Amino acid sequence: MSALIRLARDMGAQVSGSDSRFSPTLAKLLEEGYDVYAGCRPEMARSADLVVYTGAVPPTNPELQAASRLMERSEFLGEIARGFEIVIGVAGTHGKTTSAAYLASILEAARLPFTAHIGGEVVGYGSGYRRTGDRILVTEACEYREHFLALRPTVGIVTNVEYDHPDYYRTPDQLYRAFGRYAESAEALVCPTEVSECIGADMHRCLYDDMCIRPVPEGGDAWVYMDRCSSIQVCLPTWGAFNAYDACLAIRAARVIGVDEEAIKLGVASFSGVKRRQQVLGRLHGAPLITDYAHHPTEIRALLEEARKRFGRLCVVFQPHTYSRTEGLMAEFATCFEEADTLYILPTYAARETGDEQVVVNLERAIKKADKHLVGPEQLVEILKKPCGKYNAYLLVGAGDVNDLAQMLPLGD
User: Of 182, 301, 364, 406, which is most buried by a Cβ count within 10 Å?
Assistant: First the structure.
């Protein structure tokens, strides 16, 4: 939403905005001169020509009730996208933000006029928004409630498809069918073969599924990207095979629209990263404190496996994100923390839901790790403040406000 308000103003609209509580995002928008605030002012909505909202806003919200015209966020994004010559929509259960941010970095290096609408804060942008022109739009395409069907991308990327959002998709097949419709809406499709087959898009009229990326033996950060027409050695500033995979898909999409190899090399090497994606916040008792947005079991497992290789002994703090996801994926959550030496589980970040914290008690019981603890934020801060030489890294994991704990810990550089 913060990217959309910036984009709307840049396109000539008079804008204002609200959020449920004050946050660093609101503070930054205020510094940039935006009329934003925490709480509800129905009179603002009543005087607006259009109120754009997200699915996290309940129907009882006074601003929604006061609005004369409403549009859900994804529909508004779809309307904006129609003004661009090329639309690249990045969909998938995992990796959307990193793939979109890598692609934006490549387009910047290629000096192509583009606008990026990204769901995380890109380091160097100060937000998830970047605009150098209006020819190409790079945007995340969110599958929640089939919102990505509002886009008609020139190039659609699907990073992967795995069951999620059980509050909306009752079965995996429902999710796969939605991704299939998204894939068919794209003029060209970039995704691995196993994904195209899973969603029934393997006969897409213009399918690019020929890409791969491999580390250079003893090459440090060097990787080799390959497709049927290219072989490009790139230097990845991010760690982990999952990040390399996200970069691989961004490179393939860039090749589809004709970006040259030198711009790809420069764009990948100069990628500055995304906040809350393996972001080091400081050092706690001499070990790095890392925050990561992983909130699905597959993301958590991949993160911890790579962190184990890179750092060694791990202390992991996990904040579940939504009651429905925790309950619906309980069996997967039970086994995804195996690489953690110690695991602390916080209360649920409810987001758009209401629910019973018994689901977190059930999660703690389901996880088979020996050293696991169900704790509140204040208790955890006191635990983590005590000097401890047992760990090589601390990880704050989840899509809620778990990284706010860092502000209460004695961090060093």
Answer: 182
